[in-house]
Amino acid sequence: MKKNNQNTNNIPKKKILVSACLYGHCTRYDGESQLLRDKTFLEWKNRGMLIPVCPEVLGGLTTPRSPSEIRDGKVYNMDGDDVTEQFQKGADEVLKIAQEHHVVFALLKDGSPSCGCKHIYDGSFTGKKINGSGICARKLLENGVLVLAEDDMASAKVFLNE
Question: Which of these, 15, 75, 115, 131, is most buried using a 10 Å CB contact count?
């Protein structure tokens, strides 16, 4: 039997989970992206190290969609609909992806009701931020995945020794 001699040197071993909007996908509630233009981040993207995910889309929400915020442990959109179930489903899907790919860490969009890891909006739809984590960020943290915000690139570089 012949051994498969494929060259695996080009396949990046370290994988990083990243919010799809930071990656450049138009998955935000407003249908836009928020591409992270950090030089190292863009190098990681070009090297195939990034795995883009949008928990809200994975949970079944559309793009664009009504903005959502966390209030009293539940997620409501601006129309008053309880969308907690979709946010939880998306978080579960993202955790599966993180575990399947043995990610080193997650780099998520702070402020998001899914991905916020330092701050989230307070649930009043007035633009006021509070300390806290989004549904997906919390799920990842509870399952041992290091979660960093987009403004933590210096820490991310140190963590990867880059």
Answer: 115
Residues contacting 40, CB < 8 A, separation 6+: 153, 156, 157, 162
Q: Which class for 26: exposed (0-12), middle (13-18), buried (19 or more C-beta within 10 A)? A: middle
Separation between Cα atoms, residue 136 and residue 56, nearest integer Å: 9
93 lies in which domain range? 16-159
Please check whether residue 135 is in contact with residue 127, taking contact to mean a CB–CB distance below 8 angstroms: no
Tell me which residue of 111, 68, 118, 64 sits closest to 88, measured CA to CA.
68
Tens of pLDDT, residue by residue over 16-68, are 999 999 999 999 999 999 999 999 999 999 999 999 999 999 999 999 999 99
Number of separate domains in the chain: 1
* Residue 2 falls inside a structural domain: no
Which of these, 55, 51, 63, 56, lies nearest to 23 by C-alpha position?
Answer: 51
Spell out the alpha helix ranges (H) of 10-74.
20-23, 39-46, 55-58
pLDDT tens, residue by residue, 68-92? 999 999 999 999 999 999 999 999 9
Do the domain assignments include residue 25? yes
- Closest among 84, 117, 140, 107 to 20, alpha carbons compared: 107
- CA-closest candidate to residue 94, choices 76, 114, 74: 114
